[in-house]
Specification:
7-stranded mixed beta sheet; mainly beta; 57% strand; 0% helix
């Protein structure tokens, strides 16, 4: 079974930076990752897109990012990273890793996986 393991969340001051990571672990041999990235959810609000990237390295960012965040990946480690700079209080949320993946050559097995989430708190 594939699991998504997140790390890097924590408390940071406004204007500061954090780097999140998410690694696919477990039975990862023979899987193909179509898309992988991050969503976030603040209390009382809907989940929203932060950043994703496809197997072809196409990147998509939420409208609020405005150049402050950068998503990257390490294909060998099946890991994605989110570099977050110029953080503000509105960035406070639980950040969830998401992966759209399936067994290689078997598109019928394709589905979404979710990490348990990591808390990001921006406060002075």
């Amino acid at each position: 079974q594939v699991q998504l393991v997140e790390s890097g969340g924590g408390l940071v001051q406004p204007g500061g930076s954090l780097r999140l990571s998410c690694a696919a672990s477990g039975s990862t041999s023979g899987i193909y990752i179509y898309k992988m990235g991050w969503y976030r959810q603040a209390p009382g609000k809907q989940r929203e897109l932060v950043a994703t990237m496809t197997s072809g390295a196409e990147k998509t960012y939420g409208d609020f990012v405005k150049g402050r965040f950068t998503i990257s990946s390490d294909g060998r480690k099946k890991t994605v990273y989110l570099q977050m700079d110029s953080l503000n209080r509105d960035d406070t949320a639980v950040y969830y890793c998401n992966a759209d993946l399936g067994a290689v050559y078997e598109p019928s097995t394709r589905r979404d996986y979710w990490g348990q989430g990591t808390q990001v708190t921006v406060s002075s």
